[in-house]
Amino acid sequence: MVHASQPRTGAYAYFDGDDSAKARGLFQLLREDGTPVDEAALASLDRALARQLFEGMIRIRVTDARMMALQRQGRIGFYGEAMGQEAAVVGSAAVSEPDDWIVPALREAGVGLYRGMTLDSYIAQIYGNAADPTKGRQMPCHPCDRERHYVVMSSCVSTQVPHAVGIAMAMKISGHTGKVCFGYMGDGGTSEGDFHVSLNFAGVMRVPVVLICQNNQWAISTPGSLQTAAPTIALKALGYGLEPIRADGNDVLAVHAALRYAADKARRGDGATFVHLAIATNR
Questions:
Q1: By the 8 A CB rule, do 161 and 198 touch?
Q2: How would residue 7 be classed by pLDDT, with cut points 50, 70 and 90?
Q3: How far is CA 58 from the centre of its chain?
Q4: Chain segment 252-276, per-residue pLDDT in tens
């Protein structure tokens, strides 16, 4: 993968475009059929990393299938699967470091699992059984992992976005350089006031946060055409002075590269980035 210190050519030249072009464009490394957009861009791909990404996506798909079956049987109360969004979840998770913080929305449990949350702990929290480390104090499908800085999600849409920015601000105040907070939301979250307050604060204070929108085009039940009149959600970042990145959310390598770019920027102290992951799902 190409880092900021290296010349960006081919597909990676996307990152050298102006902000408006990046917000309207789409960064891809793989086509829908799995063939490379740019052979040279993948020449240095770490095979061990590629295997980890693949295993992470398979883990989520299998876990979600089992949990959804249990939910339909009435054995667990609620479950938010990530079917069709595995690449966005795992590609972003693989960029995080152990000291980073994760503030998830509904479909990012795979980030916690990738970072080391055990399946035992995760499933115990879904069931709310005696092995649940939160002792039943959370709602169904609200897992967390204190040791790995995986914050419990919020059921209220987008209220977690200010939390992510606040954690990043605390990092900056405390002088914890090199750390990043990753804050997730869905496309519906970008229509909430919390989203706009958060982007404004992140832009003004230049905090080390990467805000990630998983846009599956439905926000559970509202299609994207009714969610915003903007040509892309990434364009919303421009008004707040944040750099927008728009990447193919079904392309795990593109997601990883885009999030690496944004995280490296935050670690250098160069401020926040808004990453719009465009996802085509069968939901």
A1: yes
A2: low
A3: 17
A4: 999 999 999 999 999 999 999 999 9
- Three-state SS sequence of 155-186: CCCCCHHHHHHHHHHHHHHHCCCCCCEEEEEE
Q: How far apart are alpha carbons 212 and 274 in whole angstroms?
A: 6
Rounded to whole angstroms, the Cα distance separating 153 from 138 reads 10
Residue 123, C-beta contacts closer than 8 angstroms, at least 6 positions apart: 67
Q: Locate 102 and state its tokens.
A: 């994760």
- What φ, ψ does residue 235 adopt, rounded to 5°? -60, -25
Assign residue 135 a region (left: φ > 0; alpha: ψ between -120 and 50; beta: otherwise). left
What is the Cα–Cα distance from 188 to 195, expressed in whole angstroms? 10
Mind listing the pLDDT tens digit for each residue in 146-194? Answer: 999 999 998 899 999 999 999 999 999 999 899 999 999 999 999 999 9
